[in-house]
Design brief:
heterodimer, A: about 280 residues, 7 helices, B: about 290 residues, eight-stranded mixed β-sheet, 11 helices, 11 strands, globular
């Protein structure tokens, strides 16, 4: 599932490059990309089987961390089962993901597995997600008169209702890409989590609510840059521990030194940072 | 003996054909076959693939494709598919947008010789409204609600491979990227391979044949036949070339891109696009 800025004239913000210049800030050790990646990896710790599709570098790195650390089964659209290449490739269909893999399992086989309830988590990226957790990978505007035709949602339209949980990520947090209601529903279903460069959302009572705000961001930033009147989860606000919270909202933890070491070991080219427009040191 | 020239294989594609491509996104797309179609006059093609990139986009750029069945057309981290996008936004393209799973199911229907197949999922998706090949129905036995996909049998299936023999037995390094499904579903199956070996070379190891030769109608030897996409195990995708293609397509100079690179045939294309780049493109375990 491709992640593309709908207002960027069709230019993915990851046009920066696939070979040398994937990482926009190579001199910086910790950015929000590392915060997001470790947040996903921690959530995966108790999951049995998770699947990543194409154009998913950040979740793929997180899934590799979860495989190494917690033994999570990593299924990849590349066909790899538990691939362990020296470096995580930018294209997550890349056959280099088969290096070190224990078996091959093609994406149609993974779809079949999802259809009978065998996939606990799949990852989805998309140009738009709305407050209900629906995604639009099809078009900005309408089907009949698209302002911007996106590439399509890949497998998501089929899979969102089938998997136990779909977890979404975006490399940009903006009101136009997080509207109250998407222009077109490519996929709807069990999207239960979304992480952006500002915060983590979980779906509660059918609506995405903020459960933590990342270091460097504030609840006001989230309100300002989200297309609906954002709710902050009660349990986060109740935490109330200064240092762990900001304005009563839970802080997403920073990566530990050990987590950073593992990230750079599994992803030395830092493909997890591709697609981000304004990464800063944290 | 199924060995033919690439030109002969491409000449067997007729106006209005449904052409299915093996490969996924930037990997093992049958680009030489696509270029050979672009050198010819054939048009009104319906393309089919699970997740495509430059194969579908280039034939959108030349105007030879008028429709496609797909789950995704794009260039992953490189961005959207500019020519596909322009054609769809102009209302000049019949986009049968589904999911990778519905396209796989279309091919499974063809492979199994049935007119349609039920499929799990799609609940709540607007794709059910806009795609005539998808519908909701009920199970004839239980009455349960299910979605269903109409079968599409490709007139031609095209697969790129690492190696083939003269009898059409096919091997590709890496995992299956829907090639076996395309080969089992299409009426006629054409293979381009990085190298074609003598008949009998596969006899030593039947397990090496990812597609059995009896399913294949013609095979052509085409080095760099997936370029600028990857041919796993042989070369990686050519990031610089892909970027140039996208930049020129977005800048409205797609015709000039073709003028620069397409050439009279694949040898000409390699001279223009690949010459001197073998080392840079060589497949290595490390990822740039």
């Amino acid at each position: 599932m491709v992640e593309t800025d709908p207002d960027a004239g069709g230019r993915s913000d990851a046009d920066a490059g696939l070979d040398a210049d994937v990482d926009p800030v190579p001199a910086v050790d910790v950015t929000v990309a590392e915060v997001m990646c470790t947040a996903i990896a921690r959530r995966l710790a108790t999951v049995d089987t998770a699947f990543q599709g194409f154009a998913s570098p950040l979740p793929t790195v997180a899934l590799r961390v979860a495989h190494e650390r917690d033994g999570v089964t990593h299924l990849s659209a590349s066909g790899a089962v538990n691939g362990r290449p020296d470096a995580t490739p930018l294209s997550t269909e890349d056959q280099r993901l088969l290096d070190g893999a224990t078996a091959q399992f093609t994406s149609p086989e993974a779809f079949d597995l999802a259809a009978r309830g065998g996939i606990d988590v799949m990852f989805v990226g998309s140009p738009q997600f709305d407050r209900h957790g629906r995604m639009n990978g099809t078009a900005a505007g309408s089907w009949d008169a698209p302002k911007v035709k996106f590439g399509g949602g890949g497998g998501s339209g089929s899979l969102l209702p089938l998997v136990e949980n779909a977890w979404a990520w975006r490399t940009e947090h903006a009101a136009r890409s997080l509207p109250a209601d998407v222009d077109f529903v490519t996929a709807a279903g069990n999207l239960t989590y979304l992480v952006t460069p500002l915060c983590e959302f979980e779906r509660v009572d059918g609506e995405l609510q903020v459960v933590s705000v990342h270091p460097g961001a504030s609840p006001a930033d989230v309100r300002e840059r989200t297309g609906w009147d954002v709710t902050f989860a009660d349990d986060a606000r109740a935490a109330g521990d200064e240092g762990r919270t900001v304005d009563g909202v839970e802080r997403t933890p920073r990566p530990t030194d050990e987590e950073l070491r593992l990230l750079d070991e599994l992803d030395p080219n830092r493909v997890r940072r591709s697609g981000f427009t304004d990464l800063e040191a944290l | 003996m199924k060995r033919q020239s690439l030109a002969d294989l491409a000449a067997a594609v007729d106006d209005g054909d449904v052409v299915a491509f093996g490969g996924k996104t930037l990997h093992r797309a049958p680009m030489a076959f696509v270029r050979e179609l672009a050198r010819r006059e054939v048009g009104n093609l319906t393309l089919l693939g699970l997740a495509n990139s430059m194969d579908v986009d280039l034939l959108c750029g030349t105007g030879q494709a008028s429709a496609a069945h797909y789950g995704y057309v794009g260039f992953e981290a490189f961005g959207l598919a500019p020519n596909y996008r322009r054609r769809v936004e102009a209302g000049a393209f019949d986009a049968h947008e589904g999911t990778c799973y519905t396209v796989a199911t279309m091919l499974r229907g063809a492979k199994q010789g049935v007119p349609s197949l039920p499929i799990a999922g799609l609940d709540g998706s607007d794709l059910l409204e806009v795609n005539d090949y998808l519908t909701e129905t009920t199970c004839p036995f239980t009455g349960d609600r299910t979605a269903a996909v109409r079968t599409v049998t490709p007139d031609v299936g095209v697969v790129h491979a690492t190696e083939a023999d003269e009898n059409g037995n096919v091997h590709y390094d890496g995992a299956d990227l829907t090639e076996s499904l395309v080969a089992a579903a299409a009426d006629r199956v054409f293979v381009t391979a990085e190298r074609v070996v003598d008949a009998g070379e596969f006899e030593a190891d039947a397990a090496a044949a990812d597609v059995p030769g009896f399913l294949v109608d013609g095979v052509a030897e085409v080095p760099y036949g997936a370029h600028p996409c990857s041919s796993p195990g042989t070369y990686g995708y050519d990031a610089a070339h892909l970027r140039e293609y996208l930049d020129r397509s977005k800048a409205g100079t797609f015709e000039a891109y073709l003028e620069t690179y397409l050439g009279a045939d694949e040898a000409d294309y390699r001279d223009r696009a690949v010459d001197g780049r073998a080392d840079a493109l060589a497949w290595t375990p490390e990822v740039a």
